[in-house]
Amino acid sequence: MGRSLAGYLEGFLQKGSERAYTQPRGYRTIHWTYRQVAETAFQFARELDARGVAKGERVLLWGPNSAEWVAAFFGCVLQGVVAVPMDDAAAADFAQRVTAQTGAKLAVCSLDHGKTLSVPTMISEKLPETLARHSASAFAAVEVADQDALEIVFTSGTTAEPKGVVITHGNVLANMAPLEKEIGKYLKYERFFHPIRFLTLLPLSHVFGQFLGIFLPQLLTGTVIFQDTLKPAEVMATIGRERVTVLVAVPRVLQSLKEKIRRDLEEENQIEKFQRQVRSADGKHILQRAWLFRRIHWRLGWKFWALISGGAALDDDTEEFWARLGYAVVQGYGLTETTSLISVNHPFHLGRGSIGKVLAGREMKLAPDGEILVRGGGVSPGYWSKNGVDSAAGDESWYHTGDIGELDAEGNLYFKGRKKDVIVTPAGMNVYPEDLEAALRRQPEVKDCVVVSLPRGGNAEPGAVLILRHREGNAEAIVRRANESLAEHQRMRQWFVWPDEDFPRTSTQKPRTGEIRQFALSHFAEGATRRAPDSGSLTNLIQKITGRAPGSLSPGAKLDEDLNLSSLDRVELLGALEERYQVDLSEARFAAANTVGDVEKMLHGKALGRVQFHYPHWAQRWPVKWIRLAVHYLLLRPAVFLLGWPRIEGRENLREIRGPVLVVCNHIDDVDPGFVLTALSVHLRHKLAIATGGEALEILRTPPATRSLPGRAYDRLRWTLGVALLNLFPLPREAGFRESFAFAGKSVDRGYSILVFPEGRHTKDGKMLPFRAGIGLLVKNLALPVIPMRIDGLFELKQAGKKFAAPGKIKIRIGPPVRFEGNEDPEEIARRLQTIVAGL
Fold first, then answer.
1. Four-way CATH pick for 1-144: 3.40.50.12780, 3.30.1330.60, 3.30.70.3040, 3.30.1490.10
2. For the chain (length 840 residues), average pLDDT per consecutive 10?
3. What is the dihedral sign for C-alpha 646, 651, 654, 655?
4. Cβ neighbours around 20 below 10 Å, total
5. What CATH number is given for 538-603 in this structure?
6. Measured between alpha carbons, how far is 226 from 809 in angstroms, rounded to an integer?
C-alpha cells in the first residue's frame, strides 16, 4: 500500500467490484464499489487541476456522509489539496466564516447548502455527472511529505469557541500503522465473515468518523453503510436489513437503542423476564449470552456482533447492557488534536469500563493532577491561523488533553472526566461528575442526567439535573438511592428535573453542559422551576416550521387551525421530533394529535391511538411475480380489451425509457390500474408496483372483529389476490405515508417502477381533484423520471352505467417524461404535475 494516503486508492482498485459504500438518497439506496470510489477520486483530482486548485490550497467539504464525500476527500489527497470538512448540521454563517478564514478555493457541498457560500461550489449529489468529462484512469499523485497538512478540522466543544485543528498526512499514517498491524493478524479469518459491514453513524467531518468510515473498513474489504437518521427503530431496521456486522456510533445512539429495546419489551409485557435474564447472564460465556437473548439477536441479525463507541465516554450501564446481551462493546479515546486515537479497546480482549490501552507509537502519561498527557506522531502540529500554525503541544511536545484519567495494573486507561469539570468541594475533595452520573443512571427511573458544579462557600458542590422516564417519578428518592453508593464528599444535595424531553446537544449528541449549568444556577437561585432553554425544544421546532413566535404556542394551540400545519409540515415536524428526542413516533398516532398539548403528551409516552399498515415485500419475489405475469396476459389484459379497447396515444414517449420510472395518472375508477398496465411498454409493465388507498387496503388485510368469519376470510382473500396479482401496496390518505414512500423507494431499488394516482380518490364529477402535496415529496426523494398519463372516456362510461365501451371510446394519453431538480418545493412539484396531466 505504501507510506502515503494516496496509496490507499491502489487498494481500492484491487478490490474492484466489491461493495465499498451503501447510502440513502431520498427514498432510494445507492451502492458504490471500491473501483467507482477510486475512479471518481481520480476524476475529482483532475477537476481540481483544471480549476487551478494547487497543493496546499483548501477545499471545503460540507454535506452528509456519502461515497461522493469520500471520493472528493481522496481527490484532495491526490492533488495535495487541504480538505476542510464541515459538519452537515453547521450553520451557513459558520460555514461561510470558515471558508473565509481558510481561504477555500472551492466547496463540495450538498444541494441544500449549495446556494449559501460565496465561493465556487460543486454539488456532491451530482458529482459523478459533473466529473464525467474527465478520464477515470489512475491519477499521478502530487508528492507530499508527512508534515504536509491533510485537512483542517474545525471543532466545537460543548463550551469552547470553534477552532481549526491541522491534521497532517503523517498524523493519520502514524495512527493507522499500529491498527493495520493488529488487523493483519486476523485477516486470514476475514473470508469466513466476508463482507464485514460497518454501519457508521459518525460524521465524516470528525476524524474518528473518517477512521471508521474511510480508512479501517477497507483494510478488511468491508462495506460501509451510511444512514442519515439516528432514529432507533430505523437504525435497528438497517442493522437487520443490511446484515450489519459492526455499529459505529456516539454513546447517545447506543443509549437510545438500549431504551428502544426496553420500551419494546415493556409493550410486550416481557420486561421483568428480560431483567431476570440480564441478571442471570453475569459471568456467562459470550455465546451463552447470545443464545439467552436470541430473540434480540434474531431481530438484529446473527451477523451483528460489535458496537464501537466514540466521540464521548460511554456510561457503564449502557456498556454493561450490551455486553450482557452478548455483544462486544469497543471503546476508544482520543481528540481531534491527537488525530482521534490515543487508546482503543481490543475487540477480543476487552477491558470492561476502560477506554482501552494506549496505541503503539505514542507516549502517554498522567500528570500529578491526573490529566492525560500524550505525544507522538498522531499529535497535531497545532491550530490553523492565517499567519501559520499555532502549536497545540506544550513543554517537551506533550499535549495536554484537559481530561482526567486513571491507569490500572494491566495498562487499561479509564476516563474520569474533563479537568475543568472536576468539582472541588469545601473540604478540598475532588468530585468527578462522571462517577455521580453513573450512580444516577443505575437507578431504573433515570432516562438521562447531567451533574453540574454549583457554587458553595467559594468552592463547589455537585448538583443533579435529571430526565426521568416518567414525569411522576420521585426525584428525591432517586437521588437518595444514588447517594447511598457514593462517598460522603460525593453526595448530591441539590437536584431538579429538567422540564424538556431532552437536554440541548451538540452535533455529536453531547449534552451542552454550559447551557445546562446556567439554567441550573438560575433555577436554584430563584427557587422555582422555569421553562428549559428553547434550543431544540418542541416549541422551538414548531416555531421553525410554522414561523410562529413562541408566545403563541400554548398547549391548546391547534396544529391545523391555529398553526396552519399542512400534511408536509406535519411530516417535517414529526421527523424533527424523532431526531431531536431520539424516539420513534407512529405517524398515525401523530395524525391523531390536534393540539400542541397532544404532541407533548405523545412525547411523554401517552399514546393517541395506532394504525398499522402492512407492506407486502413477498409480492415482489419469486414465484409470485411470475404468477402475476401469467395472470396479466391470460386474464387482465383480455378483460381490459373486452371492457373497452382503449386508444393509446404517446407510447413513443416511452421508447427511450428503460426504468424505473414514476407513473402518475388521473383517477376515475378501480379499473384504472388495468388500463395503465395495458398502455405501458412491456419492460415497464412487467415490473410495476401500484400505490392504492391504504385505509381501504388495510381493512381488507385486517377486517374488523364485528365482521363474520366467512366475511373476514373473503376480505383477506381479496387483499391477497389484489396484492399478488396487481402488486398493490398501501398509500394512506391521512397518515402513514412516510413508510409507504420508503417502501416505494425499496421497490425502485429492486427495479420496479411506481404507479401513483395523486388525487388520492376517484373523481366525482369527471374533473380532476387537486393533486396531494405528497406526490411532490415522492418525486423529490425518488429522483426518477415522471411519466404523466391521462385516462379519458371512462368516467362517461361509468356515469352511463355501461359495462362495455366501443373500441377507441376510452383514450389513454402518455406524455413525455418530466424531470425535476432535487431542490424544488414538493407543493410546487405537485402543482406542475397536475397542470401537465390536465393538459394531456
1. 3.40.50.12780
2. 79 94 92 97 97 96 96 97 92 87 93 83 94 95 94 67 85 90 84 91 92 92 92 91 93 89 87 90 88 93 91 83 92 86 76 79 88 90 81 76 86 83 78 89 90 80 89 87 90 87 80 85 61 54 64 69 70 71 66 74 58 84 91 90 89 88 93 92 91 88 88 92 92 76 93 94 89 89 94 87 85 94 84 93
3. positive
4. 25
5. 1.10.1200.10
6. 52
- In sequence order, the β-bridge partners of residue 494 are 463
CB of 92 closer than 8 Å to CB of 116: yes
pTM: 0.84
C-alpha to C-alpha distances, 551 to 48, 557, 564, 573, 598, nearest whole angstrom: 50, 11, 16, 19, 18
Where do the domains of the chain lie? 1-144, 427-526, 538-603, 617-838
* Beta bridge mates, 791: 812
C-alpha pair distances (Å), 400 with each of 73, 273, 404, 411 = 29, 47, 10, 19
Number of Cβ within 10 Å of residue 320's Cβ equals: 16
Alpha helices in 664-810 (DSSP H): 672-679, 682-685, 694-701, 709-726, 737-749, 774-782, 794-799
Classify domain 617-838 at the CATH topology level: Glycerol-3-phosphate (1)-acyltransferase (3.40.1130)
Report the distance separating Cα 372 and Cα 365, nearest Å: 6
Q: Are 763 and 769 in contact (CB under 8 A)?
A: yes
Query: For domain 427-526, which architecture applies?
Result: 2-Layer Sandwich (3.30)
- Phi/psi for 165 (5° steps) reads -95, 125
Burial class (CB within 10 angstroms; exposed 0-12, middle 13-18, buried 19+) of 542: buried
In order of 181, 246, 363, 365, the CA distances from 375 in angstroms are 20, 30, 5, 9
